[in-house]
Amino acid sequence: MNTQLFARAIGSIGQEALQRAELERRLYAIQPAPEVHFDGRDGRPIPRDETQDKTARAHQAGVNSIAVDRFEGRYLVSGGADASIKLWDLEQRENVQQDHINQPAATVKKSPSTHQYGITHVSFYPFDSQAFLSSSYDHSLKMYATETMAVSATFDLDSVVYSHSLSQIADHLLVACATQHSAVRLVDLRSGASTHSLAGHQRSVLSVAWSPHEEFVLASGSSDGTVRLWDIRRSANSLGVLDMDDAVGIVGEDGLGKNARTRNQGKAHKDAVNGVVWTDDGKFFVTAGHDERVRVWDMSTGANALSHFGPIIKNSHLSTLLPLLVPSHVLAAGKQVMFYPNPKEILMFGLFEGTLLKRLRVPGARTAVTQEKVGQMNLRNRTTALSWRAGDAGFLSAHSDGAIRAWLPRMQEDAQVEDEEAELADGSENENRKRKREALDEIFKDLTKQKITFT
Fold first, then answer.
1. Nearest CA-CA partner of 105 in 33, 36, 39, 34
2. What is the C-alpha to C-alpha distance for residues 349 and 191, in angstroms, rounded to an integer?
3. DSSP code string of 342-403
4. What is the pLDDT of residue 253?
5. Is the pTM here over 0.85, yes or no?
6. pLDDT tens-digit profile of 413-430?
7. Long-range contacts of 375-380 (CB under 8 A, 24+ apart)
8. pLDDT at 218 over 90
9. Can you say how many angstroms the Cα of residue 421 is from the centroid of all Cα atoms in its chain?
10. CB 125 within 8 A of CB 165
11. pLDDT digits over 256-306, tens only?
């Protein structure tokens, strides 16, 4: 860091390059932050046994989805397997050097007007953090006002809604929904109606994502192993499919896809595709499947970029599982980093090379226990969702054991400060002990100097 500051001082690098270098340095220093806790108990005691640690639970039955608002990075919304939704203020923490327990700022509990079954996906309204969306196993998509946590709109889609997506750039307010049905459902927030469906998949749709640069282009992944691209303006909506066996792509007349034919055959994965996500520049696309593979696609041609992440990828649950792509402004040009949520660890990869950069083990991973009158239900612990926090060079993770965990950069200088504070604390404790010993010694000496007379 001192070298970069010197380079900035003599004018060899600009302010933007210095900022990017510092953000990248902090990115590679990310570690678990066990001092940050999310406790959603509302004052209720939790039974503990010898196999459990003291990690706080945000949702008693497990956390299925989380989202951080992309404007301030201040608010976090979480959806639980118990149908509850909680809003958290991430700026409650005043001293970053001390343990802090986050309490929910507001809670939506199960009621006739809210979700009846577990939450599958939550997301903030992309243009304003004053609203958020949630989908559920109860076949519905709901919109909430953040300030009041009241339901603003409800859409019944007649099948399980695994995930949803709302474009961050489009003028239209169409929510794409991945449901148990084989067609992608589009819900119009303006009219309050389910406008139409995009048919093409043969089995249920598990994940959807709008393009960050083309407002009418949508991608979807299905349990039939296909990934389809759609242009919702066209009568024949499908733009084609991605083929894992095609490393060349459809180049077209200009080598970039102009007037190219449409590919309608091929699979992106050998099994279900439950995660699709775009890089923020829209040039590349990432998919995750039950074949325990993550694939990267060049979206100028639709070619498989052949990034290989090795045999450590795990993915077997039907719910949506989205890799976390680090925003491009954090990294130098041409670089891209991906965090992948493995069951009890989070893997950090170089996206294009497939290089494993770091394995972050989830601290205190355990089996979830829910409080029920009929008994206890044990769930295999897994990481269910990741969400980047703007301005923090860190992220949050959701887990089926009920915990939300923070991952923050721990720089060498931070470790030095902590060590110095620990030494000071130890020094003060030793000084107190020394004074107590001296006082006891004085008392003992006084007692031994006194003459004792036996009669």
1. 39
2. 42
3. -SSEEEEEETTT--EEEEEEPTT---EE--BTTB--EE---EEEEEEETTTTEEEEEETTS-
4. 47
5. no
6. 555 555 555 555 555 556
7. 377/61, 379/61, 379/62, 380/343
8. yes
9. 32
10. no
11. 445 556 788 899 999 999 999 999 999 999 999 999 999 999 999 999 999
Answer whether residue 170 shows pLDDT above 60: yes
Q: DSSP string of 71-123?
A: TTS-EEEEEETTS-EEEEETT----TTS-EEE-EEEEE---TTS-SS-EEEEE
Residue 235 has pLDDT above 80, yes or no: no
Longest pairwise C-alpha distance within the chain: 120
Contacts of 177 (CB under 8 A, 6+ apart): 135, 141, 157, 161, 163, 164, 184, 185, 186, 187, 208
Residue (of 343, 376, 361) closest to 51 by Cα position = 376
Cα 239–Cα 351–Cα 311 angle in degrees, nearest 5: 100
Q: How many helices (H) and strands (E) does the chain have?
A: 3, 32
Look up residue 185 and give its DSSP letter.
Answer: E
Cα torsion at 377, 383, 389, 395 (round to 10°)?
120
The answer to whether 166 touches 175, Cβ cutoff 8 Å, is yes
pLDDT tens figures, 21-46: 777 889 999 999 999 999 997 655 44
> How far from 159 is each of 163, 184, 289, CA to CA, in Å?
12, 12, 22
Place of tokens 């190219």: 260
Q: Under a CB-based contact definition with an 8 Å cutoff, are residues 154 and 142 in contact?
A: yes
The C-alpha atoms of residue 204 and residue 194 are separated, in whole angstroms, by 18
Task: Annotate 364-394 with b (16+ C-beta within 10 A) or e (fewer).
Answer: bbbebbbeeeeeeeeeebbbbbbbbbeebbb
What per-residue confidence (pLDDT) applies to 446?
60
Cα–Cα dist 341/360, whole Å: 10
Task: Please give the mean pLDDT across all residues of the chain.
Answer: 83
Q: For position 3, what pLDDT does the model report? A: 58
Tell me: pLDDT of 201 over 60: yes
% residues pLDDT > 90 (the chain): 60
Alpha helices in 142-227 (DSSP H): none
CB 278 within 8 A of CB 284: yes
Cβ–Cβ under 8 Å, residues 185 and 204: no
The C-alpha angle 280, 310, 382, rounded to 5 degrees, equals 75
* CA atoms of 362 and 399, how far apart (whole Å): 9
Query: How far apart, in whole angstroms, are the C-alpha atoms of residue 306 and residue 249?
Result: 12
Please tell me the distance from the alpha carbon of residue 407 to that of residue 29, in angstroms, as a whole number: 10
Q: Which residue, among 208, 299, 224, has the nearest Cα to 268 in the 3D structure?
A: 224
The residue type found at 179 is: T
